[in-house]
Specification:
alpha/beta, six-stranded mixed β-sheet, globular
Length: 180
C-alpha cells in the first residue's frame, strides 16, 4: 500500500470511536480514471486552470483515508485515527458529522462506468482489515456517501454493486494490508 500524508486532516473529537466506513466514487475530470489529479486535490496542489470542470474545486479542502484505483492499488492519505475530510455535511442514524467517526474510502469511478473486479476485491480486503482494527464496524456500518448525504451526493452510485461487494467481503481470507 502506498502512503502519502494529506494536509487535509485533523484530530477526531476527543473520545470519538471509529465505527463506520463510507464508500465514495471519484473521477477527475469526470470520466477519467487516473490518480494524478485526485492525488493533487488531496495534497492541495491541484492546478484548477488545467480543466474547466476544476473551477469549482479552487478552494476545496478534501481528503479521504484511502483511494482504491481501477487496478486495485490502494493509497492511504490520512491515518485512520485522524479525521479525513470526505463526508461533508452528513448524518447517519441521527448522528451528524460523519467525518468524526468514519473512515472514508474513495474508489476511482463515476456514474456511467462499472467498477472493476480488482476494486471490489481490494476494497473488500481493506474493509475487512479495518473491521479487525475497529470492531464496532460491521457490514451494516459500511455505507455509501449517498446514504449519509442523500440528495446532495450520488456516490458510489448505481454502478457500485453492493451484492458483488458483499460476495467479495465474504470471500476475503488473506489480510495482508498494513494500514496506518
Amino acid at each position: 500500500m502506498r502512503w502519502i500524508n494529506s494536509p487535509h486532516q485533523n484530530e477526531r473529537p476527543p473520545g470519538m470511536a471509529v465505527d463506520m466506513i463510507v464508500l465514495h466514487a471519484i473521477s477527475l475530470p469526470a470520466g477519467q480514471f487516473e490518480m494524478g489529479y485526485i492525488e493533487d486535490l488531496f495534497m492541495d496542489r491541484l492546478d484548477c486552470s488545467v480543466h474547466p470542470s476544476f473551477a469549482d474545486l479552487q478552494e476545496l479542502k478534501v481528503s479521504a483515508h484511502f483511494v482504491v484505483d481501477r487496478k486495485g492499488g490502494i493509497t492511504q492519505f490520512v491515518p485512520c485515527q485522524r479525521r479525513a475530510w470526505h463526508a461533508g455535511v452528513s448524518s447517519w442514524h441521527e448522528r451528524e458529522g460523519c467525518n468524526d467517526f468514519a473512515i472514508g474510502i474513495e474508489m476511482i469511478g463515476d456514474e456511467t462506468h462499472p467498477f472493476t473486479q480488482p476494486q471490489y476485491r481490494e476494497t473488500a480486503r481493506l474493509c475487512r482489515q479495518l473491521m479487525q482494527h475497529f470492531p464496532a464496524i460491521n457490514r451494516q456500518r459500511i455505507v455509501g456517501h449517498q446514504d449519509i448525504a442523500p440528495g446532495r451526493k450520488w456516490d458510489p452510485g448505481k454502478q457500485w454493486s453492493w451484492s458483488k461487494f458483499d460476495r467479495s467481503l465474504s470471500r476475503i481470507r488473506r489480510l495482508h494490508l498494513e494500514v496506518k
